[in-house]
Design a protein that fits this description.
Helix content is 73%, strand content 0%. With 140 residues, it is mainly α. It has a single domain (12-139), classed as Four Helix Bundle (Hemerythrin (Met), subunit A), CATH 1.20.120.
Length: 140
């Protein structure tokens, strides 16, 4: 099948990196739930050593399907309309922020720090949408 538009693939690596983060969180969640579900890795008293982390990992994994949706849509649209250096930079800022956000959410109960890191992700995606709007207007 022939495409009318040749996509620019510069944003594919940040997109793939975010997908890899989500896959890693699935692995971590499986490991954290293994003692409770399969009995693998239980403590001698039968308890789950990952019980405190499991809800945090689960919540963070759910977060990967909320605001990041707008990241993926903007990146895919920019791949079709044309990618600029600013978009690539914003995409990597978003991905780095998501990795940091995941670490903060899973490893600490510090909601204030998590909110600060989320703000970076939020602004990066808004920037991508601003660039998308400009690109779409330029192609109109």
């Amino acid at each position: 099948m022939t495409s009318l538009v040749s996509p620019d693939t510069a944003l594919l690596l940040p997109i793939t990196t975010h997908v890899a983060l989500a896959a890693l969180l699935y692995v971590l969640l499986t490991v954290a739930r293994a003692p409770a579900i399969w009995g693998i890795g239980r403590r001698a008293d039968g308890s789950n050593p990952w019980a405190k982390l499991e809800p945090r990992i689960s919540a963070n994994l759910s977060n990967q399907f909320e605001w990041p949706l707008f990241f993926h849509v903007a990146c895919l649209a920019l791949m079709l309309l044309g990618t600029c250096h600013a978009a690539i930079t914003l995409a990597w800022i978003f991905v780095a922020g998501r990795v940091l956000h995941s670490a903060v959410q899973v490893m600490t109960p510090n909601v204030r720090l998590r909110g600060l890191v989320f703000t970076v992700n939020f602004l990066a995606v808004l920037g991508l949408w601003g660039l998308l709007l400009l690109a779409a207007l330029a192609h109109a």
